[in-house]
UniProtKB/TrEMBL annotation:
Biased composition annotated in UniProt, kind: Polar residues: 223-232
Annotated protein name in UniProt: Helix-turn-helix domain-containing protein
Record flagged with keyword Coiled coil: yes
Coiled coil regions, renumbered to chain: 164-191
Domain Helix-turn-helix: 1-40
Biological classification of the source: Eukaryota, Metazoa, Spiralia, Gnathifera, Rotifera
Annotated organism of origin: Adineta ricciae
Residue segments, region Disordered: 198-232
Annotated keywords: Coiled coil
Pfam families per record: HTH_animal (PF26215)
Amino acid sequence: MIHRALNICSTYESLAIEFENIRQIGFHNGYSKSFIDTRIGTGLTKFLNPSVTNTSVNMEEEKKKMYIEVPYTGATTKPFTKQLARISEKLRPDLDVRFYAKPPPPVQIHFNTKDPVPKHLQSNVVYSVKCAHCDDFYVGETERQIIRRLWEHGAPKSLFQTNIISLDETNNSLNEENNNIQIENTQVRKMGQHVHKTMRQRATPYPTSENRTEVTIRKSRRPTANNQSTPPFSFIYTGSAISRHINETNHTIDWEHFKLVWRDGNHHKLLTKESLVIQAYQPQLNRTTHSSPMYIFPEGLPQNLIPDPQINH
């Protein structure tokens, strides 16, 4: 009530009347006259001399805060931090030293508990492959295991075969397992029980003569001199710039020493990183300049900000 009276009253007469009302309210509530007058005096002193309080506040604000990490050792940590706080307050009163406890790091961070993934089995990467006979190279990206993508480019099936299981055998075992599951499901349904199972067929990891796409291109049927239309022709299309380079130059690709340039688990970011590498280094075997629209970096980035596709990262 005293604070409100000091802020609202605009004249000394109104302030004196308000103080008298506060005294009457205090008397009716059992407060002594000395206590009320002391509170009124304290309020007037703070109101008329604000510099005293502001100076103390400014001194506290000027103190530089310092945070110190203390290892957590159980119940003894709290009294230990209190002792450190008293010592720091005596030695450096100009500092506001604050201690916080943190548990020690786990032992696992000092040891590698997982086997490293081989380079050819890593996924979600931007990679580069170089020609063994010239300086031409290719930059691409894949979300699958990189060995599968190299097989699609035309790499031999024997590449890294000693380090991986034959995928043909894996597919055969999966097909046998799926067939057994289908037979069991059929028998269960005949007994009146409904079992819902989802089975996913594994895609063939590399192109063969059986699964390559045969594209037939027909020319326009304009009549010739003999009033005969041009017959259609077909060719095998693999969709790989590396395969086209091999067919045109009879060069071989250094498949074994491919490079891992960048990685990212987000598909859109992975496409953006591939586009940045292509724009920065202009690989000769790439037929496209970018894989996704370059809204943020339409002109690309300088090479000092992009990983070198000729070096493993």
